[in-house]
Design brief:
The structure holds two protein chains of two kinds.
Chain A (H helix, E strand, L loop, with lengths): L4 H12 L6 E5 L4 E5 L4 E5 L1 H12 L2 H12 L1 H18 L16 H10 L3 E5 L30 H13 L6 E7 L7 H14 L4 E8 L6 H9 L3 E5 L4 H7 L9 H18 L3 E7 L6 H13 L9 E4 L11 H5 L6 H9 L8 H15 L2 E3 L20 E2 L4 E3 L12 E2 L3 E2 L1 H20 L24 H28 L14
Parallel strand pairs in A: 4-5, 4-11, 5-6, 6-7, 7-8, 8-9
Antiparallel strand pairs in A: 1-2, 2-3, 11-12, 12-13, 13-14
Helix pairs in contact in A: 1-4, 2-3, 2-4, 3-4, 6-7, 8-10, 13-14
Chain B lengths: L1 E2 L4 E3 L1 H6 L11 H4 L34
Classes of the chains: A alpha/beta, B alpha+beta.
Chain lengths: 511, 66
Amino acid sequence: MMREKKFYLDRLQQAFGKEKPLARMLRTSSGYYVYDTGTNKILECRKEVYDLIQELFVKDVNKAAADFISRWGENEFLAAADEIVEAMDTEKILVVKKATKSGLSDHFKDFKKMLTSSVKAINLEVTQDCTLRCAYCIYQDHFKEKRNYSQKVMGLDVGKKAIELLKAHSSALDTVSIGFYGGEPLMRFPFIKDCVEYAKKLFTGEKIGFNITTNATLITDEVAEYLIKEGFFVMVSLDGPKAFHDKFRKDAKGHGSFDKTLNGLRLLSEKYRETKKGTIALNLVYTPPFSEHKLDTTNNYFKELKWLPKEVPILTHYPVNNSIPAAFAAEADLKEDKYLFDWAVDKYKVDPDKSDSMVKGQIEERFAKFMQRPVLTEPVDSYFLNGCCIPGLRKNYITTNGDIQLCEKMPGNCPAVGNVNTGFDFETIKNIYIDEYVEKSIDTCSRCWGLRLCDVCYVYAFNERGELDMKKKSGHCQTVLNNVEKCLLYFVTLMEENPGKLDYLYQFDIK
Amino acid sequence: MKVLKSGIEMTPAELNKMKGGACACGCNFSAEGLWSSGEEGGDCMCNCKSDSYPFAGGGTAAATYL
């Protein structure tokens, strides 16, 4: 039942008066939507309703109403306002205007308790040396946030201490994870085997998931057999066909690494086919010059590798910011004719579940997060730490000297959260990674419509000196927010064009 | 206005009780068993959803550009 104009103005005043609600308007080529932060809902609406909400976001309520009426007439205003108010009442949208502060710090005692019994993983920096000197590697001299290559290696005593730390802090879990990272970890294959054996002796009742990130140049028949037999998750870095791969991924003498990497991948694939144990995944850095043709060529290349198991996921990334050296700047600056994500969406929308691995690797996890996101019957205004991990619980990058860093992606000089000899440093975790992060983030984050979909984490908030740097974080925020919006737009477009086609993503395993 | 069919509808309380699920803010604290009350089923102590897969690629940590 339609009410009088004053009724609607009063109700709209509640939602859009002093402060605007946290929400985002989305428009596709044929549809109009509102994403509501408080409930995490996406609502479809008529064009007129969309227009009115847009006005309400940028103007005083009376002015917005007057302007709307001058274009659409009073009857249309009443109809549109009625639909908005009804959605506010039934779907509880447009309620949350500002997120409130995280309670995490207040609960630190419990958090500390959790760190004593539920630590899930360690990732060992086996060596700081590598068989390659990839031009875009973050361990090259020109990339200032990270250490450079060195001869430093992890001693077995440190490796064992790290495994003991994991054992001591994971009593509540039945599965833990141990990773081997570098440099190139397979430069120290015997060390890896020693660690695996030690871990298997120590963890008698629990399942251990081993993983390794490798350029595969040192994978022999023996190494492949071992990794697959032990059920490793093996992430192989391969940038596509030889010409693309070898341009950036060279050894210290300047020789391309493609042939060795492909040989290693083939050996792994053979062992995998024989036993169906372990997991192989490809990590592909999409390098300049960027072009649709290059993406198509790369995708076709992998499709034609008949010996590569179809189930191998291919995860494609642009190089890390500032990691492309000056020598390639001209190519990096060339305007892209197709962004990676746009390219993947164009392919994916033809038939989502039958798309190629490289396409799926770009799309599925992002859309699965939308598909499986909690949609709330009541609005929630809690603000927490964006997409940060739980310090100490999830990753734990153990450096060669035994320091515990949050993860391998953190800038090198960030405060350690402990050491394998002394355990976790709860003071540092609380003071820097929780209290300081929350205090410095809250002003921006609490007024951001994207806070439930944001994946900004500590990695983007610390500078090369290891300091919490809000300027750096804010710079990244805008990129992330733009990406989230773009992703949402594609998501609703696909839902329009292919209703039900994304339902399979309800089952997708978001790690 | 019509809600687009996606997501998993739940009350904030249900959400926090759901082990293995995400919390109201989009984090995974409840999946980790971190309850502010110290007991399962209380408010979630957030946060975290950033770990898209067990580790980033060798020396090429994932940029999040689309």
